Amino acid sequence: MTLEESRTAPSRRTRGVSPFGVLMAVFGLVLVYLVIPNAGPVLRASQAGKGTPGVFTARERSCIRHPGHEACTLRGAFRSDDGSVERPTVALYGSGKGLREGGTARARDVGRSGTVYLRDASHEWIMNVLLLAAGGLLVFAGLRRLPARAGRRAGSPVEDE
Asked: Which DSSP state fits 51?
């Protein structure tokens, strides 16, 4: 290849990963790291009937009000039907509408620390899949190698000094 051909040939060189790309990848890895440990329990919670059935007894209801929205958390105890699992302090995932302090609801323990679920299937897996996909996309986008910019395009005028 002559000197002239090398000037006009398209560049196939690539630059390294930018510092912003590394930051994106690290953030993506943090998202993946936060989602993976709960993947098993969230998957079991998404399937009605999975887990250990029992009764949740509400002890405390705390609510946060936002304009046009109220989010409530029920805390209490869970006891399995066969008595083999007793969890004295857990939160009930789901709305638990109408459930007040001292009330009970059918629930199931799917192995997630600090949380039991209502008998119905949970839709929590949707957010976990979205977070996992976002984390993977950030890692992929952050670590891809960027093409180097060509210094001069073929046929562009050359300035004389």
From this structure: S
Distances (CA, A) of 93 to 5, 112, 150: 67, 11, 55
pLDDT tens, position by position, 11-61: 555 677 788 989 999 999 999 999 998 788 888 777 777 889 999 999 998
- Write phi, then psi, for 155 (nearest 5 degrees): 85, 0
The overall pTM is greater than 0.85? no
Both tokens assigned to 59: 């002890």
Domain boundaries, the chain: 19-145
Q: What is the pLDDT of residues 80-109, one digit of tens each?
A: 999 999 999 999 987 666 788 889 999 999
Give the list of residues 6+ apart from residue 155 with CB closer than 8 angstroms, or none: 8
Report yes or no: 142 and 17 within 8 Å, Cβ to Cβ.
yes
